[in-house]
Specification:
2 copies of one chain form a homodimer.
Chain A: H1 2-10, H2 17-28, H3 35-43, H4 51-63, E1 68-73, E2 76-80, E3 86-91, E4 97-101, E5 105-109, E6 116-129
Parallel strand pairs in A: 3-6
Antiparallel strand pairs in A: 1-2, 3-4
The first copy, chain A, binds a DNA duplex through residues 14, 16, 18-19, 34-36, 48-53, 55-57, 59, 75-77.
DNA sequence: GTTCGTGCAAACGGTTTGCAACAAT
DNA sequence: ATTGTTGCAAACCGTTTGCACGAAC
């Protein structure tokens, strides 16, 4: 809790009650929730929380570098609180998104990539989760 | 033209004038247009074409396996007519999406991936296009 | 008291859908 | 005749925005 206040302050974010509640949730889940899903969840412990505040707050967190937007679901952006680089696996049946540790996959450039200044990359996999 | 009619028929699609016009466009561009962009372009040669028909047709093409939906742009789905597997590079400045040949990048699994039945994957890169 | 954050409702933009007119078999 | 396709408009849904109220420095 105290750490979270500190964490927000370090990123230049004024730690209001709403922002704390949202931050607590998004950093405690290992899922990849949409803004509306965050709203639904946090509302249960913070009933007055408005949808607009959730959207604004999540965008603020992204701008300040606390979390990342990911294009992994159709129709909605999802947010990813894991700060270290990783890959993603999407279960085509459930739509669930799994983090794949960075070191599980080796990506090597073999062909010509001149003219492309790659700042960031990730492997996006799709398929079926067999167990779990 | 004749080939396109044939192509559609082979995929179980009745080749109407609208569908032909949309197919001609999407298979001739190397870009990754959104449905609205397809509409704008094809409308110039087919003014009566409605937006709904474009959306319906593109979805039909996806269902029948002619083209692919890609989650590479925020706010809209883009369509990809290239049937062979490839990776993508997104210019963060312009938003332009570039195809990267499959053999340019080697992806090797190093870690544990049990439980994940990977049916499909691609590398998504972001950065700046330096020349063109 | 000025700046910043919140909540509400309205607006917005991409996409889907219901429906009537129409074309194809 | 039946089935499938088109165009229009309305509906839908995720997201942003304008604005008034309220809290914090």
């Amino acid at each position: 809790m105290k750490d979270m206040i500190q964490h927000l302050r370090e990123h230049g974010i004024l730690p209001t009650a709403q922002r704390l509640a949202i931050a607590e949730f998004i950093f405690s889940t290992d899922g990849h929730p949409s803004a509306d899903e965050v709203w639904e969840k946090v509302k249960s412990t913070f009933p007055t929380l408005s949808r607009a505040t959730v959207y604004n707050t999540l965008n603020l967190f992204v701008d300040k570098g606390l979390i990342k937007r990911q294009l992994l679901r159709e129709g909605t952006v999802v947010f990813d609180a894991v700060s270290t680089a990783h890959h993603h696996f999407i279960d085509e049946e459930s739509g669930r998104i799994y983090d794949i540790p960075w070191d599980n996959i080796e990506v090597k450039v073999k062909g010509e990539m001149t003219g492309f200044d790659v700042r960031d990359y990730q492997v996006v996999m799709r398929g079926r989760r067999k167990q779990d």
